[in-house]
């Protein structure tokens, strides 16, 4: 962050956006061991821009008017295509999180490592944490962080 600010020369810097990116990346490193937003320094995951576009698309789709929400009998028609777009976005998020889980280094010490280690443990009722539950938890946590700190420009 300081290198990014230092290299901005005499230009005006949107400090709020820089701090949001820094905060989001710090929390993501604790959760999954990598940054999720590109901070302009080049030391970021190459898929950071893809993740950012997915988050921005989700925020837009969440606020779009959907006639099926107000007239339930028309929901199955998906007149505005919102459900179709959400399903497509869900597949992108699912693929993104699956890749993160597959490429994850289990020797690191972060939330994802802990969740993956719980995958092999069973409770008294022979239940265990599944791959789908891990992805769902990561998605909820990541989106809750980025919805508070999402730099949309």
Write structural notes for this entry.
The protein is an all-alpha fold and 153 residues long. The protein has one domain (2-149). The protein is built from seven helices and no strands. Helix 2 runs antiparallel to helix 7 (131-149) and helix 3 packs antiparallel against helix 5 (82-103). The chain is flat.
Query: What integer value in Å does the Rg equal?
Result: 18 Å
Give me the number of helical elements.
Answer: 7
Q: Write down the domain tally.
A: 1
Order of helices and strands: HHHHHHH
Low-confidence stretches: none
Number of strands: 0
Query: What integer is the average pLDDT?
Result: 82
Overall structural class, as computed from helix and strand content, comes to mainly alpha
Give the overall shape, derived from the CA principal axes.
flat
Summarize the structure.
This protein has 153 residues and is mostly helical. It has 7 helices and no strands.
Question: Main traits of this protein?
Answer:
153 residues; mainly alpha
Describe the secondary-structure layout.
Blueprint: H1 2-6, H2 15-32, H3 48-63, H4 67-70, H5 82-103, H6 111-118, H7 131-149
């Amino acid at each position: 962050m300081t290198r990014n600010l230092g290299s901005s020369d005499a230009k005006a810097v949107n400090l709020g956006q820089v701090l949001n990116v820094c905060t989001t990346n710090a929390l993501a490193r604790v959760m999954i061991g990598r940054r999720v937003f590109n901070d302009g320094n080049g030391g970021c995951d190459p898929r950071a821009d893809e993740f950012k576009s997915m988050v921005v698309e989700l925020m837009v789709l969440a606020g779009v008017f959907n006639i099926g929400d107000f007239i339930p009998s028309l929901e199955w028609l998906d007149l505005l295509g919102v459900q179709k777009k959400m399903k497509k976005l869900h597949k992108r998020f699912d693929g993104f999180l699956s890749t993160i889980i597959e490429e994850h280094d289990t020797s690191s010490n972060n939330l994802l490592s802990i969740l993956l280690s719980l995958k092999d443990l069973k409770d008294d009722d022979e239940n265990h944490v599944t791959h789908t539950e891990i992805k769902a938890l990561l998605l909820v946590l990541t989106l809750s962080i980025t919805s508070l700190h999402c730099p949309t420009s």
